[in-house]
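Continuing the batch. This is chain 6 of the set; chains 1 through 5 are on the previous pages. Same settings as before, nothing changed between runs. Recording input and output for traceability.
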Amino acid sequence: MPRELVAVDVRRPVLRDYEDGPVPEGHVRVKVEFGSPKRGTELTLYRGDRKPLFPMGLGNMCVGRIIDVGEGVEGFSTGDRVAGYGHLRETHTWQARRVYRMNERMTWKEAVCFDPAQFALAGIRDGQLRLGDRTAVFGLGAIGQMAVQMARMAGAVFVAAVDPVAIRREVAIKAGADLSLDPTTQDVGVQLKKATGDKGVDVAIETSGSYEALHQAIHGLAWGGNVAYVGWSKECKGGLDLGLHAHFMIPNIIFARACSDPNRDHPRWDFARIMDTCWQLLSEGRLQCEDTVYPVVPFDESAQAYQEMDHHPEKSIKLGIAF
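Output for chain 6:
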């Protein structure tokens, strides 16, 4: 029988069997080859920081080949390589209209970076990053890695990358960041001012949801600059002192979420356009994803790897699963 990765309770991932029924009309069945979980939102639920319903499927996107096509489906055939949203399981039965066709050059790692690319793009756009700006990206998980690259694409002349995990900083530098900073050993706000001639960055993209990071983002900001707050924040229990810098630097703190419609640029932009834009960028190979999806482990080891991702974030960027 096929298997799937689920959490049966808070922080209890297991592989369990399931059965596939007939393929419904308008659907395709896919044999999964690769997949990846979503670190931020998904881990928040997995840890019980919000109120999830258990059992909870673990994973965000999967890539594979179509093995069966339901009645009424046009434009897809068995053998087609596709991607779609879904937790980590050996087969998926998806509505054909929700399946993303992959071209021949597109890699599976690019496909599973589709979701983080969307939220990175929303942060770049809502943060109003413009040609010639200086920027800092806080949090170098998959969203942050995409944001570093998109900041360059948007015309930033200086990009700083901030994260306590060394491997993430190394990948960000490889992807085009000018400066990497470790918030556990450096005063990030001071270093950003130093790197910009005491001016500060024009736009900070905060993807981690950490209040310490938000505090440093404000500290390192130029007067009147923007902070695009992308990370899913929780109750603030320390780490943020708005009275220390914010009332003097008068930052614009902009909450950014790709899938919240109407978009700030409605009606020209909506979530569908963000998704289409990101899929195009990834399909054309304009975003580097090879080093972002790390490590890659076999599906048989996915429960242990999920626990490792939770307890040892310093060992991974975006976990990849090979079936």
